[in-house]
Amino acid sequence: MKKVAIVGVPIDTTLVLIDYESDYYVPLEVLNLNSTVAARKMMIEVAKNISNLETTDFGELTFGIESPKTREFKVEIRDCDKDYYDYISLDTLKTVKDDILSLKKEFDYVICTGPSHFGALLLYEPDDFVARFDFHGDFIAERSDLVVGENYASYMNTVKRDIKPKRIFNYGWGGLNSIEKAYAMDLCGELGFVGDNNHLQANHFDIDVDCFRNDLKMSKYHHCGNLLPKQVETMISEVKPKKIGVWEYRPFFDRGNGVKFLETLIQSL
Questions:
Q1: Which of 201, 225, 257, 262 could pair with 216 in a Cys bridge, judged by C-beta atoms 3.0 to 4.6 Å apart?
Q2: How far apart are alpha carbons 160 and 151 in whole angstroms?
């Protein structure tokens, strides 16, 4: 019997207006409870029909926040008070990271999911070989030593500076097209291509659903990669990685293919 731990990471990203004159916004990571309920429920329901798979749902992380103020951040906000909004920092993540990684001792697979890619930092370790799937590099190369890496668009700066995995191969990155390069950001690690077999060494699959083609309508973003779910599902079935993160999946933007991917992911274990 294979044992699967499923953990909801209800961190979401909102944009905060810093300067009116320059129209300058910065991303802020906040707690958004119940944002992982649908994804976790889908995976658990599928697992019930697989005889050799046993899932344990660990619910959603609350990071010790006793009375969270939940809301959907669909609009940009100004003058965000960190004491009022439930701000999630790198230090906040560190308080639960050891607990999440300790699940590897009891479970064959640890799956984390959440609407912000910032949550992926919970699964990164120094000994990792990572197969990363994302249209965006989520890495800022220029003056990288000054980038805190405390949000969904820069968490790879933290990975490179503080965690230093063995190798990272990036699949579905959009920077190969000069038109999309500005949106795709920089790469941390190496560029991967489907069929290169580099993923066969991976113990950690880091998946952002915007790695998939835009016409599949699995992501809220218009700038998406060129991968098909079947390609990633096949890679998972070949490797059966110990750690899997599925990030930026939001049910209200999914037109059905996201659900199918989550179902097949479980079936691929």
A1: 257
A2: 14
Give me the helix-helix angle, 37-47 and 257-267, nearest 10°. 40
Rounded to whole angstroms, the Cα distance separating 269 from 267 reads 6
* 24-73 pLDDT tens trace: 677 889 888 899 999 999 999 999 999 999 999 999 999 988 665 655 44
> What order do you get walking across the sheet with 243-247 strand by strand?
53-60, 2-8, 109-114, 243-247, 204-208, 129-133, 167-171, 190-191
pTM of the full structure:
0.92
Q: At residue 143, what is the residue type?
A: R
How many Å apart are CA 141 and CA 188, to the nearest integer?
8
What is the Cα gyration radius of the chain?
Answer: 18
Residue with tokens 């697979």: 109
Assign 12 to helix, strand or coil.
Answer: strand
Which amino acid is present at 5? Answer: A
State how far the Cα of 144 lies from the Cα of 129, in Å rounded to an integer: 22
